[in-house]
Each structure stands twice: as structure tokens, then as C-alpha cells.
Amino acid sequence: MNDTNVSSTVLDRLAEEWDALTPEAQKAARYVLENPADVGVSTVREIAEAANVKPNTFVRMARQVGFEGYEDFRAPFREAIRRGAVSFPDRARWLQDTAKSGELGGLYADMVGAAIRNIEETFAGISAERLQSAAHVIWNSRQVFTLGVGVNNANARNFTYLASTGMKQFHAIPRPGSTPVDDLAWADGQDVLIAMTCKPYRTEVIEAVKLAREQGLTVVGISDSPASPVVLNAHLGFVVAADTPQFFPSSVSTIAFLETLLSFVIAVSSDEIVERVERFHQRRHQLGLYVEEPE
């Protein structure tokens, strides 16, 4: 197992132990989950000050997840930093040049940089094995409910639309005029809920996740923090980076993740699905929905 995976495993253990942590230890754990890069470069006093807790809180938290103390806990994060990530000097040089290009050049560089960084950070923290597990759960389900409100409603509907070109069991919720909890009224252990929300977290999504678990659904949670209530209450949680210079959270990595998840679902599905997708598009050609390119 490489060092990046080791530090990710530590974060997974923190999330698993969340309910057993004291409120103060949860504050420390939340800081680690949301700022893992700080762990490798911070002393226990520095990170405690940043998290607004006492240093002993970090020591107790580290022991609760199986380490002798904070230094032992910090070791895999330090090693991950030592080994480093892939550098992109050409990209950095391009972004610097773009920032100098004019009045809006700085904003343009910030937006592009955030989009690229969000995608890199998102997929660096997600393993193919975990994606495959989610894909199998989705493929083997009776129905799949994809829940998003606000900007994530469009993301949920886009995912459902693409999935529905070959599969019949996908539903975007809330449906027009309905609520998420009403749309899940008759769902049970044969079904899957894919729920997504980013800070500030939407109450109706959190409540739907809790209800879904009570009804026996398998929950796939997508959010911008390992400490998000949607990720903590999911059977399979995925963290997407959503930082952006603008006011609203970015959807770039969420869309990229959903597209990748769908590709995994199709990969584990039956040959019939591929045939359905082909028939779906053949039908569209026959109905004249596409502009035919001249030969």
C-alpha cells in the first residue's frame, strides 16, 4: 500500500469512529478530515490551535483510532508529503501567464486553476475498488433514486438522464411538485439512494438519507467533506472537491465523478445494456433528432 493510501486509510478510520468520538474530539477529527494536508506539517499545538481545541484532544483522538499518540498519527501524512504529488510546471507557468493577460485574466486563471485542482483532488482520494463497489450495488438494485437539490438537482437529473439511455430503474428526485421523503415512500432494501449536497448542507437531503437508511436502502453519499452528514451516514461515501473563487460551490468534480461512476456501472452491467444504448441512439437517428453529417 502506498503512503497516500495509508493516509487515506487513517481518514477512513476517523470517519468510521466518528459516532464514538466526544464532541471535542469530533472537532479535531473534522479539522483533520477537511484539512489532511495540514497534518503532516503541523505540530500538535499548531493543529490544535487551528482546530480550536486543546492539544490533548488530538492526542486522545489519535489513540482512539489506534495510534500511540499524535506523532504516530501524523507519520503517514508526513511520508505522503515527502514523496510528493505529480508536479505540473507547464500548467503552473500557463496559469501565471494567464493571470497577467488582462483585467479579467486573474479571475480566469483562478477559475481554471480551481477546476483542475478540484478534479485532481477528488480522484486522488477515490479508489477504483470503491467505485466498483458502488457500481455493483447500483447495478444489482431494483431502483436507483438520485437526489440533489439546488444546483445538484441538475447534476442528479443529468446523471439519471444519461443512465436512462440504457437502464430503466433510475429516478431523479425530488420529482416536480414532490419532496424527497415522499418520493422514497415505497423504497426498501432492494433500492439505492445516491444523495449529494455541499456546504451549506441541505436539510431535506440529510433527512432523506436518514429515512433511506431506516427503510433499508443502500446509500451512496456525495459531498465536499468527509465530515459531511451525508458522507458519514452513507454506506459508500465519496468526497468531491468543490472549492471555487466564486460564491457557489463548483460542480466540476461532482459531474466528473458522476460520469465516472456511470461508466463503472455500465462496465459491470450485462451486454444487454450496451445493446439498449445502441438501440436508443438508433431510434433517435430514425426520428430525426440528430443532424446528420453529410457523407
TrEMBL record:
Domain SIS: 134-271
Keywords, in A-Z order: DNA-binding, Transcription, Transcription regulation
All copies of domain HTH rpiR-type, residue ranges: 8-84
UniProt name for this protein: MurR/RpiR family transcriptional regulator
PANTHER family: GLUCOKINASE, RPIR-FAMILY TRANSCRIPTIONAL REGULATOR
